[in-house]
Amino acid sequence: MLTSLRSLLCATKLSQPRKHFWMAFGTLVVVKVLWVLCNAIHVHLDSYNYLECILHFEYPPFYALFAKTLTSIWPNLYFVAVVQAVVFALCAAYFIDAVAPSKRVFFVLTAVLAIEPFSAFYAGSIMSEALFIPLLMVWLALLYKQLQQPGNWMLPLLLGLLAGVLYGIRYATLIMALYPVVLWVGQKAHRKHSWKYLLVFVVGFQLVLVPVRLAFNNAFDTWRINGLSGALLWNNASIFYPESEVKVHPNNDFERYLQQQPFHYDVALALRNRQIWNEDATMRSYMQYKGHHNFEYRPELSDELGATGLRIIKEFPLRYFTDFVGPNFAQLYVRDDVVNANRYGHHLATKFNYHGATHVRYYAVWWWSYTVLLLAMFGVYMVRRKQLRNAVGGMLLGAMGWYMLLLPIAAVVILRYYLSFSPVILVTAVLIGAALWPRSS
User: Fold this and answer.
1) What pLDDT is attached to residue 289?
2) pTM of the entire structure?
3) What are the DSSP E strand ranges found in 214-355?
């Protein structure tokens, strides 16, 4: 057992970090913390629930627990942001230490992440991406290490444990968690061990979620988590409701309620999740009809909405992609993402004595620039795929493509969530360049 643990620590470079790891960590800490201290704290839609650590069936609990723990120590938003900056610096230093093929590339990556702006911005934001992206970088580094060691079952276990943590921060992690399975099955060196990897990965994933399931069972009388999935299915499918069989032949109470009400359905509402959050739209109106509190989102409601949404999608499978998924992904390029600080100013001033809440605007042109970079990397990979097939840059590019192209199928995409991948995208670009010109690295 001790031998296995020692091998795991050595394999993940957790036992004896290289000296320049600490150089990168120190550099990133100084830059990101200074940025945080010199700028306003940014507060987003779910931030107040995160800060209060209110257990909701529809929200992942781990970032709320993280934020509540920090504010319990010191109810100061700058303290939360500084800790988030330190977490990013630590995870980013480990990430580049694990994937850099040489010291020169390591130093280039350190410089790139130091000047990369979005990581500091997210560290200064009260939103789950501030914790999700740093831990995802560690997860991707571990995946790269695992792919280098066929037959090692300890690393898939560690990957599963960390994937469970990430899932408790953002439910969309489930999409990324499928990526290793594709690699294990697709690579000859790992194919014969893929079932073992998958088994220990699932065990680790579920072990982390046991406390969440216990808490949800106590609060909501269900062992399920990710309670918002049913509502998301309904929101996405709602654009087809007026012409669906559901309208003519309702199967449950929710469908019968829809049949009696003159609700409005169009793509614009669905692409903003308004069928879920608007007070006068379908879900909130149905909750009031059922006598639920405004935010008392229950498992039985998720079941009803999910069944209706899935029934409609099955009726219009091709149009779901053309009429919803396509416009959903396209909105990243045509609409800025704006957060109104007026919603949260009073709460922040009262609870945390913070009076600096500002409007936040994420510009679509920013994502256009990253898209051009991603497409350029993909083009290079297709031309030089034999050279890049086993390179870490190719693995990271595949992970980004996998997540970003599949997410619009399941949920409404929001620009600020995609821009949070900026550090991973830039690291991938440097690594692909280093693989193409190994002498210069």
Assistant:
1) 85
2) 0.91
3) 337-339
